[in-house]
TrEMBL record:
Keyword Phosphoprotein: no
Gene: LOC104941661
InterPro entries in alphabetical order: FN3_dom (IPR003961), FN3_sf (IPR036116), Ig-like_fold (IPR013783)
SMART domains in alphabetical order: FN3
Protein name per UniProt: Neural cell adhesion molecule 1-like
Lineage of source species: Eukaryota, Metazoa, Chordata, Craniata, Vertebrata
Sorted UniProt keywords: Disulfide bond
Domain of life per record: Eukaryota
Fibronectin type-III domain sequence ranges: 34-132
One Pfam assignment: fn3
PROSITE patterns: FN3
Amino acid sequence: ITPESENDFGSYNCSASNEMGTESKEFLLIQAEVPSAPFLSEVRPFSTSAQIEFGEPESTGGVSVLKYRAEWRMQGRGTWLHRAYAVDDGFSAEATVTGLKPETSYEVRLYAINGKGEGESSLPKFFKTKPVRKFLSLQHTVEPLSHPRPHKHNT
């Protein structure tokens, strides 16, 4: 059913009959809306990436959420960068933002997207990436092991 007006939404009854009998099923055709904003619950920053955890939108708009889109930028300035995350069977409410600069303040926001379109953005979360970790390298002097020469046996 492709609705052409508001009057097309409502309850439909579908029936099928053959020599084995008749079967009926009632369907409800509702108008889809874009989803409401998801909720950003936590941002765990690293030096060049951040893991974001979020809650699903309160309303999916009557149809399933297909993907989420994260947007991020340096706090208060610059162009918003973005990446979409598809919802599949193994989906968890987490996403990783990459390509960040160490020790930099960022803001991130999230959108839910269904078949009707993209909903409102979540409230932004602000975070600062960590410094690059420096690893100490300990230098060792390795002495070669001296092996005694095998004795030759006189035969």
